[in-house]
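User: I'm writing a short methods note and want a consistent example. For NTP transferase domain-containing protein, I'll paste the sequence; you return only the structure tokens, no commentary, since I'll be parsing the reply automatically.
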Amino acid sequence: MGGGGKALLRVGGRTLVERGVRALRGGGCGHVIVVLGARAAEVRRLGVLGGAVAVGNPAWESGMGSSLRAGLDAVAAAGGGAALVLLVDQPGVGAAAVARVRGAYRSAGSLAAAGYGGRRGHPVLIGAGHFAGVRAAAHGDRGARDYLRERAAGVRLVECGDIADPADLDTPGDLAAFGTPH
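Assistant:
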């Protein structure tokens, strides 16, 4: 949407970043890290992070890979055993999907993702044992997709199609249509 900061778009009276933080907290994530790029100062000033730790990504314009690397670095620095990645532009993915995917954590070697009719989507759970590999694979607009595809047999797919809508809000039309019956 023009690179202008999706985090501050509103759906249902809340900013997308606020909805994401609430979904993570409601899904059982005690330590929430939000990676901020465009309009980061404004997000911080508005106070919509609900106690989440804000991590700035000055390279946000280079693509989502840099944001994923920044987030994984922050989780590793905090001693986290895994990262649960939720995208801000998928407001139809809420606490129930977060809780299901979070429940797939077994060890630092865990890899899991929400499934939607058998297709991998978000949220994605990345055990700490995979942080270095995901970091190395995350460049430009490529996050963990290639890394997960190469390890597909080891990724636990957690069906969430009955409780979440994985639609991305990528255009003004998507934003206007969100919540409209399909």
